[in-house]
Amino acid sequence: MKETNLSALKTRYGIVGFSDKLETALATALQVSNTDLSVLIQGESGVGKEILPRIIHEHSRRSRGPYIAINCGSIPEGTIDSELFGHEKGAFTGAVGEREGYFGAADGGTLFLDEVGELPLSTQARLLRVLETGEYIRVGSSEPRKTDVRIVAATNVHMPSAIRDGRFREDLFYRLSTISIKMPPLRERGRDAVLLFKKFALETAEKYNIPQPLHLTPEGEEVVKSYQWPGNVRQLKNIAEQMSILSQEREVGAETLAKYDVLPGGGGTNVALIGDGRTHRDYDKEITWLASAVLELRKEVNELKEMLNIHENKTTTARLLTEKQATGTLPTAPSHDFTPTEQVHTDTFDDIETAEEIVDSDILNLEEMERRNIIRALERNNHRRGKAAEELGISERTLYRKIKEYGIEE
Ligand SMILES: Nc1ncnc2c1ncn2[C@@H]1O[C@H](COP(=O)(O)OP(=O)(O)O)[C@@H](O)[C@H]1O
Ligand SMILES: [Mg+2]
Asked: Can you tell me which atom of ligand 1 is nearest the CA of 199?
């Protein structure tokens, strides 16, 4: 029974694959569809997370109700609350009319919150309230409204780290993940990669009237199976499409695949360059993260320096006061005990200056590296920001900000 259900499901949604992990994910989605429980779908970018919320909605008692999918990473931080929860007329400058918001609009249906890990903390608090009480409050209002919405969320963010770093509320995580579904990376699905390659090659041939679809040789199949597919199904689809259109060779073996950087056991164009199994994308992601961390550090050093500056001024004042008190020109006040010796003080200060110089020169390099990474990612993705952001592992909003910050011309 389960099998016929699953194969019918796959046909209906154009899903290809027989690996246990994929089938478990699909079966779980079916099983929980007719409950109202919140579902959190976790998995790397490009694994097919967006297929599941539709399945869940269309197999639920809500299937006749609205289905609204929102990408939390692409809505600007300034408007996200009003988009989700609506706003009253005049709630903020520019709020000429009132707005219902997605939570109101999805009443009786399903709301898919994609990239939920990108939600700002203040919005997370509002979302938690809806999940706990079934009520939400429009921006600029104090009156709670009822809504009957089933939430399905998805993320490629590593939740334990996000919680540890204070970027995601732990209580919200538990609320969202009443049911947790893990979409496996393509490299853990065995022969599914080969089947998917065939599917995409056939579809592209049909779409563009190409007389002879690509055919993988046994050797080519081995390569497709052993390659790590860091961008998962999305990457495989792109490559199969590109090859279908561009390749003169219709029998695809290791050599043809190598021209597209699909190498046996490889995981991306720059694996050899990096040399530790990390992919180019992993590397770009790390640099982006590292640069932010160092920029934070610089801010902290500056703050520390400022504090010391204030401290030094106070120390000087305190010393002058003490001198004046000693000479009898001023009465003695309760001591604030600003009495580090001048020697110690200067040393501390010098250390900070040096640290800052080092940090500053490294920041220049990091910023430059990050800038180049962003340009490369944009180029690789034909300047589609959504795709570039996804590849860099940052939200579209963050990418947009960085493009502006670095003055990158597109
Ligand atoms: N098992 C699958 N069979 C067929 N197509 C798939 C499968 N998994 C993913 N896809 C396709 O791969 C692309 C990326 O999937 P998507 O759901 O957008 O990934 P994610 O949201 O996890 O980043 C989409 O075009 C999707 O239709
Ligand atoms: Mg997605």
From this structure: 4
Q: How far is the CA of 22 from the centre of ligand 1 (A)?
A: 12
**208-225 tens-digit pLDDT:** 999 899 999 999 999 999
Q: State which ligand 1 atom lies nearest to the alpha carbon of 44.
A: 22
Contacts of residues 258-265 at CB distance under 8 Å and 24 or more positions apart, as own/partner, are: 262/223, 262/224, 262/227, 263/223, 263/227, 264/222, 264/223, 264/226, 264/227, 265/226, 265/227, 265/228
Compute the distance from residue 375 Cα to the ligand 2 centre, in Å.
22
- Please state the length of the chain: 410
Q: What share of the chain is helix, strand, coil (3-state, %, to 5)?
A: 55, 10, 35
Contacts of 245 by beta carbon, 8 Å cutoff, 6+ apart = 204, 208, 210
Instruction: List the end-to-end C-alpha distance of the chain, in Å, as a whole number.
Output: 53
What is the reported pLDDT for 370? 79
- The residues lining ligand 1, judged by C-beta closer than 6 Å to any ligand atom, are 14-17, 43, 45-51, 196, 233-234, 237
- What is the whole-number distance in angstroms between the Cα of residue 49 and the centre of ligand 2? 6
Q: Which residues surround ligand 2, an ion (CB under 5 A)?
A: 50
Average pLDDT for 75-79: 91
Domains assigned to the chain: 2-74+100-184 (3.40.50.300), 187-268 (1.10.8.60), 280-328+335-405 (no CATH)
